[in-house]
Design goal:
nine-stranded antiparallel beta sheet, mainly beta, 7% helix, SH3 type barrels, SH3 domain-containing protein, single chain
Length: 280
Amino acid sequence: MKSLFTILFFFLLQIFSAQETEEIYANGVFQFDENKPQKIFTEWTRIRQSPGVDTVILDSLQTNHEILILKKEKSVLKLGERAAPWYRISYQKNGKTSEGYLWGGNLCIHYRNKNGYDFLLGLTKTLNKKNPDYEGSVQQNYASVKFLQGNILLDEASFETGSGENLNFAGLSIESGHKLKDVELTLKATTSGGACGVPTYDQYILLKSKKLIALPQLMSVGDAGAYYHSEEFVFPNDKGGIPNAFIFKMEEMEKDENDREKKKNASAVYLWNGNAYLKK
């Protein structure tokens, strides 16, 4: 009789445990359209016979290899704060067309081409980071922009992107050099949660002599008119202002208990000498 109760206890425990298991949802940045091309971000991404990390490896592909998304699978794999579906793909290699499955977290979340070079934006890892507001740590995602010519990596710039809730949207744009000395162009990588109270991160990166130079990261966040915090860079040289400089501007607003707005502003000037920037 005792053994019967023991069996029933463990049976009920399994039921409740299953009910409490949280369903894993993929981050929005890893939702790729079917029948659309995409690019490999993680070097030597494994192509598998079926979805899953314990299935047979068929092949591996280098960074910047173009593939075609055939189908998004229902299964989602979460590594740290990165949650992505598995995809069935098709690709060309050594003059042959092949198919297989890969984890969406190994794909670019955005890419651009300029002057014969490729710029790829992707998520690289999740690390524990000490939280300045309380004891303990938080899970912090990291992204990077890879600068390539063909499949040759010329340089890479890494930066933080917040937690999983910050990964609803991502973009990579190419701007001018903003008339900064010896700067060929400026990249702007953005990751955003797209919701109230979830920060948006902007990362500016300068391209100079085939080197990527990351500027201080910008963060903006707000909540339904109750408060906001915004950060931006202004490049005054574009309009004939301070040469070889860029200006950091911050604005905050918070409403008090009487619904009155309290605002705060700050700014800082950074000087560019053709090789590095220095806060004035």
